Each structure stands twice: as C-alpha cells, then as structure tokens.
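Tutorial, part two.
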Amino acid sequence: MKPWNIRVHGRHIAAGNFLHIIADSHRKVSFSSWTFGEHQGHITLGDHVLVCPGCRFDSASSITIGDNCMFAAGAYITDADWHDVYDRTETVGQTKPVVLGNNVWIGDGATICKGVTIGENSVIGAGSLVASDIPANVIAAGNPATVIKPLDAGRELVVRETIFSDPAALEKSVDDIDRYVLYHNTLLGWLRAWLFPKRGD
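Running the prediction step on this input gives:
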C-alpha cells in the first residue's frame, strides 16, 4: 500500500489506534469532510477499524464509527444527499449524522445513507442499501436493507482487537502471508515481466 492510494480531504477527520487500510491505485480509499456554508463534516473512526479497497466516507455533518468495525471493498458511507431534491443547484442538500456501533461489519459494495444508526455487532450484507436504522446484533441485507435474522446469542464474538493482543504472533502471521503471496516472485521473474510482460503479470 502506498500513501497516495488514500485520499484525505478536509478537516475534522480522526482515527483511533490500529487503523488498518488496504488500498491500491485501482481502488483508492477516500475520506472527505466538506465545509460549505453552515455545513461542516466530521469523520471519526474508533480503534482497530479495517477499511478495504475502494471504500468512501463522505461527510457534511457527522460520521461516527465505533471500535473494531470492518468495511469490505467498495463500501460507501455518507451523511448527506449532496444536492437538494428540488433545487439541484443547491450543494450538500439535507444532512443527518451516521453512527455505527462497535464491531459492525459492512459488506462488499454496501451503501450507508444519511441519518442511519447501526447497532453494535450487526452485519450488513454485500450490495445492501441502508436507509433506516438497523438494531444491534442482527444480519441485515437488501435494497432497502431489512433484518434477515438475529446473531446467535450463544456464540462468542471475537473482535479485531484480539489480533493485536500478541504482537509477536501478529508479526509472524503477516510475515507468513507475505511469504505465501510472494512465493513465486523472483528477480528473474520480475525482469521477464518488466521486459516481456504477459497477461496476468
């Protein structure tokens, strides 16, 4: 990951400890906090948050993300309409804060709209459009998103912060993943791909 694959625009953007962002040149991650007239955006992320490629956070009011939340690739969170419904020349439009409780998981390509609160531990299915509140401890999906089923109250929830409880084990795990992913990379292979590229390089 390179820092230029993450776009941070505006003021009042804050993150807690151990923020984990995955991004690349094809799927940048964007945090935008807009100041326009009486509107001032705020984006606050808790500890141990995971943000995957292509995620966007656009605020003209307030987006608050709890600890241990996960955002799959292409998730979009916004607290504004960005234009008035009737006067399309009016920038920003209506705004309402967005709040995600601790340990919320937003699925691939899901959109969280203005004014939504999602309770702790809930899971939002891939491609969902969340336009109204979702209670805690449920799985919700669809367009518009509705509750599909509750989480099993008898099952223990393991949150992202547990990954960081043993730094040596975490370092070994990351090292093992790197070795696995880069196993076939060699100097000669790199030269061949640079001089004589093939599909899939």
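The chain has two helices and 22 strands. In part three we will examine how such features are distributed along the chain.
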